[in-house]
Amino acid sequence: GGESSEEGEDHHEEGHGHPHEAIFFLVGAIMIGTALLHLTFLKAFKGLQQTVVLFLLGCACSWLLEGTGLRGKLGAVGRSYGQWLAIDPHLLLFTLLPPLLAGDAMSIDTHLAQRVAKQCLYLAGPGVAINAALTAVFLWAYLPYDWPFLLCLTTGAILCATDPVAVVALLKELGASPTLTVQIQGESLLNDGTAIVLYMVTYNMLMGVEYSLGDVVVFLVKTALYAWLLGGLIGFGFFAWIRAAKNKLDHNSGLIQVALTIACAYTSFAVAEGLFHISGVLSTVAASLVLAHKMWPEVVSHETMKTVWHMLEYLGNTLIFFLAGALTGNTMVRIPFTDYLHLISIYLMLLFIRAALVMLSRPILQFLHPGRQPVSWPDAMVISWGGLRGAVGLALAIQVSISRAGGTISQIDADRVLFYVGGIALLTLSINATTCPALVRVLGVAQTPEVKIKLMQMLHSRLFKELSEKDCTEDVRQAVETMLEDLQHHIGGECEVGRERSDGSSVERAPTMQQRTTLLMRKVGLLASGDDDVLNKGELTCSLTR
Predict the structure, then answer these.
(1) Which residues pair with 389 in a beta bridge?
(2) What sections of 16-88 are H helices per DSSP?
(3) Which end of the chain is flanked by fewer CB atoms within 10 Å, N or C?
(4) Is 8 helix (H, G, I), strand (E, B) or coil?
(5) Which of 486, 496, 467 is nearest to 544 (CA)?
């Protein structure tokens, strides 16, 4: 009896290992992600798409461990890898989704979001449903695997979840319209919730749960509307607590506020999913939007809050992309070559469906805008091209791959779902995200409007007048005059770009002038108080050069 017990323990260690061994994979993924991030310090790797490389490295890790048989020879490290490949998908969703969703939602400009809310709701509601249905029809008609339509619809729902973090950051950097940026960001937040609700319905039906049309409508309303109301209530409750914790004289105040925002994200998700069985995604988004709209004036340390949440998003994206790469790499050894060709076809069809939907919806989007402002075709192109796939879709595909709808899906079909979703995420991140700067420049989306150029010219003239009226040293006056001339040169450059754009010829992006003008206006204003030291120290020169 004792020998058999020892043999059982040895077998347990060799097969599954102890739960604490999972830390090896976690720490390894973080170290690899951090090394990639550090590489971006070098000029040659400045534009490195970290999530793409993480996904590819995850694939390479699986090929190395599975293809060479190293997994069984690495002891605890190999067992840790195996534990993460078999992770409970619900644990993955409950752990990683709340910080990813809340981090995006709390950074959105809620005042602009209110103006484009109806447009975002349309794209994330009917838009997602139409997109998922068309994608499902294409998969059902195109793939030669006799997939049931419900599996096609489940896959279509997963592929509708967008994650345009890279594009949003790029648009902000290039000085694109804040309205366009918020449209893409807001649509992504809401369509994640809609796609997951649609995924839940189709996945449950795939497992054998029967729904009538009325049941589906009730389920959608219950999981979406109730989740939104619950998230709003939780958000207001945590906002009241955050406001009560505001005390700039106590160094613990900032710590308490940061901890409360993290607790709000997980509470809204866990209560919605675990207690009421409604959409945790929409609940978390609603709670986080309440904080985004109300919280920031009460935050003691904005820098600390943003740093902590940036870290949480970074860790979540690092882990989920590396894990998705490892799972996809593990399936690729069993995926036939024809599926790689199918992947390219699916990618092209997804681009076409999204572009057609956005373009044909332009009259509706114009009607839904409070000022009936039309969505230009360049903006519509950027919205279409910026529909990247990322963490949310990968998390859902991992769930399908591991649980296989309670065994109703064959392992090879579950592997194909993960392969297609992971491949689409890889293609959109490596193609769409990297070519978006060129698209933005060609379409002139980030160009300054003519009205704003005229206002900057008027402000420039006013700054010259203010300078002539100030009593300052000759060195300071010459320094500011030089910088004003440089500013005039850039404003003139923007005018030339505007004329090139109207002529239909090629467009080159001129530097954005709004920050330069604002900063210069503030610096010149310092001369009224005789504060010449700021200018003498060269601060203005460095700032304007940047």
Answers:
(1) 162
(2) 23-39, 50-67, 76-85
(3) N
(4) helix
(5) 486
Of 400, 408, 410, nearest to 328 by C-alpha is: 400
Distance, in Å, from the CA atom of 489 to the CA atom of 542, rounded to the nearest integer, reads: 17
CB atoms within 10 A of CB 4: 8
User: What is the reported pLDDT for 519?
Assistant: 52
Could you tell me the mean pLDDT of each successive run of 10 residues in the chain, 546 residues long?
43 60 94 94 83 88 84 88 86 87 87 88 90 96 92 94 68 69 83 85 88 80 87 97 93 94 96 89 92 94 94 90 86 87 95 94 91 87 85 85 86 91 88 83 68 64 70 69 64 46 40 48 48 42 41
Sequence-ordered alpha helix ranges (H) in 333-361: 338-360
Give the CA-trace dihedral at 435, 437, 439, 443, to 10 degrees: 180
Q: Which amino acid is at 292?
A: A
**427 is written with which tokens?**
């293609």
Tell me the pTM: 0.75
d(CA 32, CA 318): 9
In whole angstroms, give the CA distance from residue 306 to residue 301.
Answer: 9
What does the DSSP 8-state code read for residue 297?
A: G
Cα–Cα distance, 77 to 73 (Å, whole number): 9
For residues 422-450, b (16+ Cβ closer than 10 Å) or e, as one string? bbbbbbbbbebbeebbebbbebbbbbbee
Question: Residue 382 in contact with residue 443, Cβ under 8 Å?
Answer: yes
Q: Is 42 exposed, middle or buried, given 0-12, 13-18 or 19+ CB atoms closer than 10 A?
A: exposed
Residue-wise over 345-377: b if at least 16 C-beta within 10 A, else e?
ebbeebbebbbebbeebeeebeebbeeeeebee
With contact defined as beta carbons under 8 Å apart, do 199 and 154 qualify? yes
**Could you write out the DSSP letters of every residue in 387-431?**
--B-HHHHHHHHHHHHHHHHHTS-HHHHHHHHHHHHHHHHHIIII
User: Tokens at residue 109, please?
Assistant: 């400009």
**What one-character DSSP code corresponds to residue 162?**
B
User: Any residues with CB less than 8 A from the CB of 276 and at least 6 apart, and which?
Assistant: 226, 230
Q: Compute the distance between CA of residue 434 and CA of residue 49 in angstroms, rounded to an integer.
A: 8
Query: In b/e form, how buried is each residue of 492-524, taking b as 16+ CB within 10 angstroms?
Result: eebbebbeeeeeeeebebbebbeebbebbeebb
Two tokens at 228?
A: 């939104």
**Cβ atoms 66, 13 nearer than 8 A:** no
Beta carbons of 292 and 203 less than 8 angstroms apart: no
Partners of 162 in beta bridges: 389
